[in-house]
Structure formats: C-alpha cells, structure tokens
Amino acid sequence: MAEFTLPKNSVLIEGKTFKAPAGATNTRRFEVYRWDPESGENPRIDAFELDMDSCGPMVLDAILKIKNEIDSSLTFRRSCREGVCGSCAMTINGKNSLACTKAIDSYSGTIKIYPLPHLQVVKDLVPDLTHFYAQYASIKPWIETQTPAPADSERLQSKEDREKLDGLYDCVLCACCSTSCPSYWWNSERYLGPAVLLQAYRWLVDSRDENTGERLDELEDPFKLYRCHTIMNCTDTCPKGLNPAKAIAETKKLLVQRKLG
Predict the structure, then answer these.
(1) Which residue in 81, 65, 79 sits closest to 32, CA to CA?
(2) Could you give the CA distance from residue 254 to residue 24 in angstroms, rounded to a whole number?
(3) Which end of the chain is more exposed for a tag (fewer CB within 10 A), N or C?
C-alpha cells in the first residue's frame, strides 16, 4: 500500500489573532498566510480584525494597515497601487488577483489572503518568480529585425496592425493567470504558461518584427505550447480582463497555417 507524506513545513497551523481596537464598530476580519523560512516553523494563518473606519477601501489598503499599525514583519510586494505593475498579485478568497484593484466591499465575510499558488514562497505573501521571469526572457520579448532600421524615422505600422496588439501589450506579468493554470502547476518546468504565451503571441503578430519563423520554431514543442488544454482558468482570473487562452489558440492556429502553406 502506497504511503504519502507531506513535505516538511507544509501543514498550516493556527496563528495569532489581533483584535480590533476597543470601541470599533465597523470591523472586518482578514486571515493572512504567514511563513518565515528562517524560523523553522510551519506556516500559519494570522487573523486581523481591522477598524474599517480608519482603513482605505482596497484589499491592499488593509494589508498596508496591518503592516504599518499591527505587525511590521508582514512581507509582501506592492508598488503602483493602480493595477499597472502587477507586484501585489496574490490569492484573495480563493482567486488570484491584484490586491490594489480589489475593493474590500466586493467580498462578504472574512477575507482570506494567500500567496500565489504552486510557487515556492520566499516569505509570507511573496512567491519566488525567478523561473517565471526566466521563461519570459526565453521568448525574446523585444522586436527582432533582419533589415536595417530606417535612417530618418521609426519602424512604423498601420493603425490596423497596431490594433492587433490590443489585449496583448496590456499584460502586466503579474502571474495570476499562470499560477491559476493546472497545466502550469504540473508542467511548469517545460510548459511556458498562459502569461508567457500571451506575451509570445504579442511579438508574433507585431508587424514590425521580422523573426516570426524562428519564434514559431521555438514554440512548436509538445510542452512549451501544447500543454494548454483550454481550461480557461487564465482568462477567468486575469485582473486586466485579458484573454490568454485566445492568444494561445491563435498561436496554435499560426503553426497549423504554416504547415498547410
């Protein structure tokens, strides 16, 4: 009979509870994943009861309030607060999103906050994105050309060609889509995942790029591209409202068209 054991430090334990200040009447409860690799302890869930009358409206505001006023050791990423940098990607009530764009009032009851799933955790809400960014670099996310640049102008494109990039260049590389994809969970060492494949398609359809053939050669692989099974988690969770699944399907279509001549 097969026996399975969980990895060390994988079992969540109950953490600390921080009550709201005396007299607070408008409170919300936030449960936050905590883990410090240097402590040697199991990860825990700390609970914070916040006075919403002295807190901003977004989930990121609550996290900042916790760090600034209750527990300064809480670790997370954040920068722009406008849904542009992608830094504050995390799992909020079971769905990947950007904490700066999610209103607290859009959730009922306790709000549960975890790091992005299926990645190594650096500390608390900070996942290790080293492999994710290495995959992004592998698709050469820049214009590659064979012909000399125009002497007195930029490389121009028509309005129609420019519109082909809408819904692609908007990606902020937050990794919400890739870390919600079961195919990426099980094959992330070889499958590029929806975020990187959306970015790859962005350069495939850029009329200024002259390296389409080589880009398609790199993607024509049983794992890099074809591990996508159109589960659609990526499109469902994207905080920018983009459609990585469509970009992946269009890339497959380009490969088929190339074979058919």
Answers:
(1) 65
(2) 59
(3) N
Kindly state the helix (H) or strand (E) to which residue 132 belongs, with its residue range.
helix 130-138
Chain centroid offset of residue 204 CA:
22
Q: 10 Å Cβ neighbour count for 12?
A: 14
SS3 percent helix, strand, coil of the chain, rounded to 5, is 30, 15, 50
Tokens matching residue 109 = 């009851």
Closest CA to 102 of 249, 240, 245, 252: 240
Would you give per-residue pLDDT tens digits along the chain (261 residues)? 677 777 777 789 999 999 999 999 999 999 999 999 999 899 999 999 999 999 999 999 999 999 999 999 999 999 999 999 999 999 999 999 999 999 999 999 999 999 999 999 999 999 999 999 999 999 999 999 999 988 888 999 999 999 999 999 999 999 999 999 999 999 999 999 999 999 999 999 999 999 999 999 999 999 999 999 999 999 999 999 999 999 999 999 999 999 997
Helix pair 244-260, 212-219: axis angle to 10 deg: 110
Q: Residue 75 and residue 158: Cα distance in Å, rounded?
A: 45
Residue with tokens 């420019």: 162
Tokens of 254: 């380009």
- What CA–CA distance (Å, rounded) separates 201 from 254? 10
| Spatial contact of 59 and 104, defined as CB atoms under 8 Å apart | yes
